[in-house]
Write a structure and sequence with these properties.
Blueprint (H helix, E strand, L loop, with lengths): L1 E4 L8 E4 L9 E11 L1 H8 L8 E2 L4 E8 L11 E4 L9 H4 L7 H10 L9 E2 L5 E4 L8 E5 L3 E3 L15 H12 L7 E5 L3 H13 L3 E6 L2 H10 L3 E4 L5 H8 L4 E6 L4 H10 E9 L13 H6 L3 E2 L7 H14 L4 H4 E5 L4 H9 L6 E5 L6
Parallel strand pairs: 4-8, 11-12, 11-14, 12-13, 14-15, 15-16, 17-18
Antiparallel strand pairs: 1-2, 3-5, 3-9, 3-18, 5-6, 6-10, 7-8
C-alpha cells in the first residue's frame, strides 16, 4: 500500500510503499476513504509532540472494513465505519473505570511507541523495518485499528465526510457534554474557531445552549462560527474578549471551551465564566507551556478547570453518530477543503498557515494509483 511517511521534524511527508498490514485478534483492517487534517498531527510534524520516526500519522478516519481479526463482532467486512482517535484497550484500570479517554495502553504503547496493544506495529517497509503508527495511521491506504475504536456508520451518512466525526466532533462532544456538562438553556463561550471549536459550537447548539459566544482573532473564522450556530462573535484583537463575554451574558458564561492551547486563552476562559463556571481546555500546546491563572480568582469564584482529551469512545461516539444521523449536527458543512492523498503535505502546510477554515480532509477517492 501507499502511505505518507513522516521521517523528520520539519521535513515534508514522503509517499512510500509499505507492506499491506493485517489485523490481529480484536482488530479491524479498513480501506481508508478519508483522513481529517488535524493540528495534532501538525504538532508532531513540528516537533511540539515527541513521537518515534519513521511513522505514519493521521488519526481522524473513515473507510470500509475489508478484514476483521478473530473475536471481532461489532463490525463486519463491508461495513462503512468511522474511527475514534482514542483507541481503548478495554482492559486496563482506566477502561474498567469507564475512563476510556485515559486508557493506559493507548498512551503507554500507541502514543509513546507507535504500537498497538501487543506492543508491535502493524506497519513495515519493503525491507521489513518497522514504521510507527500514530493512532491508526490513517495516512496510509489501509489501516489497522482496534475494534473498540471502529463504529459502523448509520445509514445515510456520507463516508468521506464522516472522518471528522472521530476527532473534531468526538473531541467537541467530550468537551461540551462530558467535561463541561453543558445543559439545555445554559450559555457557553468557545475560544478558537478552528475545526474542534466549530464542532463544539454545533454540539452546544444541539444540546440547547441559550447563548454561544465564539472568540477568535480571525474574522473569517468568526463568520464560520456564526454559520455553525454561534449567537455572538468576538474578535479578541479588537476588544477585551473576557469583558465583552461577561457583559453579553450578565456576569459570565456557564461554561467555556478553550480550543487553542495557549496560556493566554486559558486565562481568558477562566475570566469569562461566571462564579462556579466550568472551563474545559482541549487545545494541545508545546512542551513546557503554562497558563498564569490568578489563584484567588479561581478559588473565590469557585471556577472549575478540567482538562478534556477526546471523549469515551464506546459511550460517547455512538451519541456523536446519533447527532449526525438525526441532523442535529451538520458534519458535512464542517468539511471545507479536500486534498488528494499525494497532496497531504500541502494540506498540513495550509493548516499551519491558518488558511483552513473548518476542517480539511485527505480524500482518497480520485487520488490515483
Amino acid at each position: 500500500m501507499r502511505a505518507q511517511v513522516f521521517r523528520q521534524v520539519g521535513q515534508p511527508l514522503e509517499m512510500t510503499t509499505l507492506r499491506d498490514p493485517r489485523p490481529e485478534p480484536g482488530e479491524v483492517l479498513v480501506k481508508v476513504a478519508a483522513c481529517g487534517v488535524c493540528h495534532s498531527d501538525l504538532h508532531v510534524m513540528r516537533g511540539d509532540i515527541a513521537f518515534p520516526t519513521p511513522a505514519v500519522l493521521g488519526h481522524e478516519m473513515s473507510g470500509t472494513v475489508v478484514e476483521v481479526g478473530p473475536g471481532v463482532t461489532n463490525v463486519a467486512v463491508g461495513d462503512p465505519v468511522a474511527t475514534t482517535f482514542i483507541m481503548p484497550c478495554g482492559a486496563c484500570p482506566a477502561c474498567w473505570r469507564g475512563q476510556e479517554e485515559l486508557c493506559q495502553k493507548f498512551f503507554g504503547l500507541n502514543r509513546l511507541k507507535g504500537h498497538l496493544y501487543d506492543d508491535r506495529t502493524r506497519l513495515f517497509d519493503g525491507r521489513g523495518e518497522p514504521v510507527a503508527m500514530y493512532s491508526m495511521a490513517a495516512l496510509g491506504e489501509l489501516s489497522v485499528v482496534p475494534a473498540t475504536a471502529a463504529f459502523k456508520l448509520p445509514p445515510g451518512l456520507a463516508l468521506a465526510e464522516s472522518a471528522v466525526l472521530g476527532c473534531a466532533f468526538f473531541t467537541a462532544f467530550g468537551a461540551v457534554r462530558t467535561t463541561a456538562k453543558l445543559s439545555i438553556g445554559e450559555t457557553m463561550a468557545v475560544i478558537g474557531a478552528g475545526g474542534v471549536g466549530l464542532a463544539a459550537i454545533q454540539v452546544a447548539r444541539a444540546v440547547g445552549a441559550s447563548r454561544i459566544v465564539a472568540v477568535d482573532v480571525d474574522d473569517g473564522k468568526l463568520a464560520a462560527a456564526r454559520a455553525a450556530g454561534a449567537t455572538d462573535a468576538v474578535n479578541s484583537l479588537a476588544a477585551d474578549a473576557a469583558a465583552v463575554v461577561r457583559e453579553l451574558t450578565g456576569g459570565g458564561v456557564d461554561a467555556a471551551v478553550e480550543a487553542v492551547g495557549r496560556g493566554e486563552t486559558i486565562v481568558q476562559a477562566v475570566a469569562m465564566v461566571r462564579e462556579g463556571g466550568r472551563v474545559a481546555p482541549v487545545g494541545l500546546a508545546g512542551p513546557g507551556a503554562t497558563a498564569d491563572i490568578p489563584i484567588t480568582h479561581l478559588v473565590r469564584r469557585k471556577v472549575q478547570v478540567l482538562g478534556s482529551f477526546g471523549a469515551r469512545p464506546r459511550v460517547d461516539m455512538p451519541a456523536v453518530l446519533g447527532l449526525a444521523a438525526s441532523g442535529a449536527i451538520d458534519y458535512r458543512s464542517a468539511v471545507t477543503r479536500r486534498y488528494r492523498h499525494q497532496d497531504a503535505w500541502q494540506a498540513y502546510a495550509d493548516l499551519g498557515r491558518g488558511e483552513v477554515i473548518g476542517r480539511a480532509i485527505i480524500d482518497y477517492a480520485g487520488s490515483g494509483g
